Amino acid sequence: MEKPTYHVLVCNSFRVGGDPQGVCNRKDAVDLLQMLESEIADRGIDALVSSTGCLKQCERGPIVVIYPAGWWYFGVTRQKMDVILDALEQGEPVPELLAG
Known about the structure:
By secondary structure, the chain is an alpha+beta fold.
């Protein structure tokens, strides 16, 4: 397998016991995963999408992190994710949405 250009991590709040207890999961992070998989394929973005355990920023969820750039986005909605993907197609972050 060839290494993708981007690795998009989506917090889904899963804890050691496997229970989805955190904010990200309750705020539809699962829907973000499905949207990302579909949009990345449709747009031809070279990226791998992964669901993560808790990223310890619960009050700021849902959280999306894009590597290798290290771009962290808090409070991601479907609308924000669309803007983030538009920028990712150009290889750039969305400065006004980046975690500060």
